[in-house]
Specification:
The structure is a single chain. By secondary structure, the protein is an alpha/beta fold. The chain has two domains: 17-256, Aspartate Aminotransferase, domain 2; 260-360, Aspartate Aminotransferase, domain 1 (Alpha-Beta Complex), CATH 3.90.1150.10. 34% of the residues lie in helices and 17% in strands. The chain has nine helices and 14 strands. The protein has a seven-stranded mixed beta sheet. Helix 1 (15-24) packs across helix 6. The chain is globular. The chain binds pyridoxal-5'-phosphate (PLP).
Length: 361
């Protein structure tokens, strides 16, 4: 039976990539698995260089940005950012639009002076007011936002245009939108994203940061979170997650073969349009998020008669639609459509939803 994995992450991987991993698992090079190579070997050094090069090409990353392969997921970056970037007396602004930006702000507050410049994390319609209405601090070292709220299904469809932005000081958590659209580097100080949604499997978090931000920290911080040290050691201060980086490399190769970032962006738009068109044009299902900030990636939805939800979930699971259950705090359903999800999978989901609607209408 064909299965479609709509899980929010760890998420679906392209079949071609899984097959390549299977094919190379026992003998990647020289009769050894990639998992058995020492990380200081030329082979693994090349693997990291190739991954970095592919990311640079795909995302058009300017030369004055450094790419670091960090561990501890995006959550480790929640603490690493204030630890590395805020000296005493300095502050940062956080924009909270949902669960993950709240988590980022809560963690950062442990290590720095953090102001919430906008909090719409509980807005049921996902409306993000224009930047002119944000309570930005004129002297904020950086302004942090979560590009795509994986749980609420709220996305910044364009880069925030901060009024009076004199230097590029935005930092975005792009964990769930990585490699699904272009990044306006002229406004960014850094972006970071865990790999397990759009770049393979859990274990590595890509941090892309302005070289000029890699100053030696004045206060003592954990070595493993120290950006300058990680840059100096080419992300190999400790044993790096080589297998996760190997999968990430295969994913970047796959994306290049699909037509690169424009192809992924187009697919994200087509997939989400197909699903929203259907959800919006019937009286049976509902997604409350306003059009200006609706996620192209994660689509949470409910049945208006919520008593029917367990029945749909059971039917979907039986028919091969996996991990459609909504996040535990939100309930309902969530269709996560990362780069590996073809249009065909979303069409199959729409057909299932239609079939269920017709039965209960
Ligand atoms: C937007 C966003 N940020 C951060 C995280 C946390 O990532 P990790 O579990 O890799 O720390 C997630 C996980 O789903 C996420 O969706």
């Amino acid at each position: 039976m064909q299965t479609w994995n709509f899980g929010a992450g760890p998420a679906m991987l392209p079949q071609a990539v899984l097959k390549k991993i299977q094919h190379e698992l026992l003998d990647w090079k020289q009769g050894m698995s990639v998992m058995e190579f020492g990380h200081r070997t030329k082979e693994i050094e090349d693997l990291f260089l190739n991954l970095e090069q592919n990311l640079r090409t795909l995302l058009a990353i300017p030369a004055d940005f450094t790419i670091l392969f960090m561990q501890g997921g995006a959550r480790a970056q929640f603490s690493a950012l204030p630890l590395n970037l805020l000296c005493s007396g300095e502050k940062a602004d956080y924009i909270t639009t949902g669960h993950w930006s709240n988590q980022a702000a809560l963690e950062a507050k442990k290590f720095g002076d953090i102001q919430i410049a906008l909090d719409v994390s509980n807005a049921p319609d996902g409306v993000i007011p224009p930047c002119e209405n944000w309570m930005l601090s004129p002297d904020a070292k950086y302004v942090h936002y979560t590009d795509n709220e994986t749980i609420e299904g709220v996305e910044f469809l364009s880069t925030p245009n901060l009024p009076n932005q004199t230097a590029p000081n935005l930092i975005a958590d792009i964990t769930s939108s990585l490699l699904s659209k272009a990044i306006d580097w002229s406004k960014m100080g850094a972006v970071y994203g865990s790999a397990q949604k759009n770049l393979g499997i859990a274990g590595v978090c890509v941090l892309i940061i302005r070289q000029s931000w890699l100053k030696q920290s004045v206060k003592p911080i954990p070595a493993i979170l120290d950006f300058a040290l990680m840059a100096e050691t080419k992300s190999m201060y400790n044993t790096p997650p080589v297998f996760a980086c190997y999968v990430a490399l295969l994913i970047t190769e796959w994306i290049i073969a699909q037509g690169g970032l424009p192809a992924m962006q187009l697919l994200a738009e087509q997939r989400s349009a197909l699903l929203y068109d259907y959800l919006d044009n019937n009286h049976f299902y509902i997604n409350n998020i306003n059009i200006a900030s609706r996620s192209r990636i994660n689509v949470p939805f409910n049945i208006k008669n919520r008593a029917l939800e367990p029945e749909l979930l059971e039917l979907a699971t039986k028919q091969g639609f996996k991990q459609l259950k909504g996040h535990r705090v939100k309930g309902g359903f969530r269709a996560s459509m990362y780069n590996a999800m073809p249009l065909e999978g979303v069409q199959a989901l729409v057909n299932l939803l239609k079939q269920f609607e017709q039965k209960h209408r």
